[in-house]
Each structure stands twice: as structure tokens, then as C-alpha cells.
Design brief:
Largest sheet: none
Oligomer: single chain
Structural class: mainly alpha
Distance between the termini: 36 Å
Strand content: under 5%
Helix content: over 70%
Number of helices: 13
Number of strands: 0
Mean pLDDT: 81
Amino acid sequence: MKTKIKKIVNILLPLLLGVFFVYYAYIQFTPEQLTEMKSYFSHVNYQYIVLATFFSVIGLVSRAYRWKYALNYLGYQSSFNNNMMAVCVGYLMNLTIPRSGELSRAVVLQKYEKIPFDKGFGTIIAERVIDLIFLLVFVLIAVSLQYHQLKDFLSEKIPLQNLVLSGFVLLVLMMAGIYLVFYSDWSFFKFIRQKIQGLIEGVLSIFKMPHRLPFLLHTVIIWISYILTFYYGTFILKETVGISFGVVMVTFVVGSVAMTFTSGGFGAFPLMISQIMVSYGISATVGTSFGWILWILQTVFTIITGAISFLLLPVLNKNK
């Protein structure tokens, strides 16, 4: 019973949070502004939709190839087709329950490639840690490129004294958390410590694998494809054409973080993209429309590739 309740909460909570973000954004606009936003959807540049989608495909292909190197290092062989379809299914599952895609990827390989679930899941977690490191690098790049603008944005949204107080409280909590995780004898923190050590070993193993350079190269390709998808997405609307690379980096980072708030970034992605664009002098109607168009584009792409993969997996593996 508790398991069922937990599953329901995991599905409904992100969805309800997304609905709240949509409602919050909706009530900020007048009927005239809503009509204006509708007009943006009817004047999109489909050539750049195709180009942005192309770079999304490049990211998927590189992610499937990259996974092969981590699995080979553990002594397992998997076909590119199954890797690719498992990745697509994983992204589709993330639209329902956040982070459930990692589990489904490992399940797909266990079913069709006979790779033990824990081994497959371990390689996925190691990938996520590497991706998190790359995201933090892009955060630093975005901050360095737009430091003054971001500082003004934060000081406008959050009073300085509140920002300092929040930073101090966060620092204290982090120090307390680090102490408990690494020095406490409580069984819970011992469990967390073991998991962290396992993750560290998994990440370090990437640098020991025979094909570590291709692995890292595909990681770079994956993140460049993400940025190019976002960059060429700005050409979909004529009102966002000409945005500087620094602004693209900031909105890309904000959008990436927003994707973790709700299922597939529903509601949160357009809202946060709009907020950051307003700080650069772009109207809220344009920023919100751009956020929704880009979110819809990625969501449709995820649903189509995930659905096709669901259908093809049993067909292409019927003899296994």
C-alpha cells in the first residue's frame, strides 16, 4: 500500500508543480498579451526547427555510442540499436516520473542484452555524474560571461541581506551534511557514504577505461549538441534572433536546471526561460512563447523517438 502511495506521489507531485507554474505564468498576462503570444506560435521558422532537431538527434546518437564504452569496460557488449532505443525510452519515461529514465534504460538492456541491472545502472549513474560536472562547467562559463547582469538580476529578485543570509545558511547546512556523511556512525549516513564512494569509484573508472578519450569526446559532443539545439532554437522566432552567445549560455543553463523541477520541465522550463530573458530586456510575452515553443519541440521529439523505440525493441530483438 505504501509503495502504491509513493508511486502516485512521485507522479502527481511533479505534475501538480508543473500545473502551478503554468497557472502562475498565465495569470501574469492580460488577454491582449495572451493573444500576442498565440501569434508567435503561428509565425515560427520551421527551417530552424529542423536544424535544432538535427542537433538533438546528434546528442542522442553520441549518448548511445558513449554508453557502449562504459559497458565494454565492464566486459559487456551491447548493440548500438538497443543502446539508442534504451536512451530514447529513458527520456520518454522521464516525462512521467522524474529520473525514472535511468531505471528504464538499465531494464531495457537487462531484458534485451542480458546485462545485469546493477551493472547497467552503475554505468548510467557514472554518466550522470560526468554530465553534472559538465553542467557545472557551463554554469561557470555562463557566470563568467554574464557576471554583472546575473548579479543585477539576483539583487533585483532577492534583497542583498536575504541573499547573504541564504548563502550563510546553505554553507552551514553543507558543512553539517559533509560532516555527518563522512564522520557519523549512524547507519543511514554510513549507507550514504558507501554510495558516494561507489559513485566516486565509478567516475574514476571512466578515466581508467581503454577508450576513455572517445568516451570524453562523445560527452563533449553531447553537450555541444545541447547548446546548438538551444542556440538554433533562438532563430525559430524573429524576436529572439540575434541574442548574444552569453545570453544563450545563461538561458541554456537556467533551462537545464528547470528541467529537473518538474516532469520534463513542464511549466518550469518556459517560466524560468521567460524570467531570465526579461532581465535582458526581452518582453515577457516573447520569452514565454520562446520557452514554450522550445519545450514543445523537445517534448514532441522525445515522445516520437520514445514511442518508436518502444515499438521497435521487441521487433528487432525477437530472436533474442
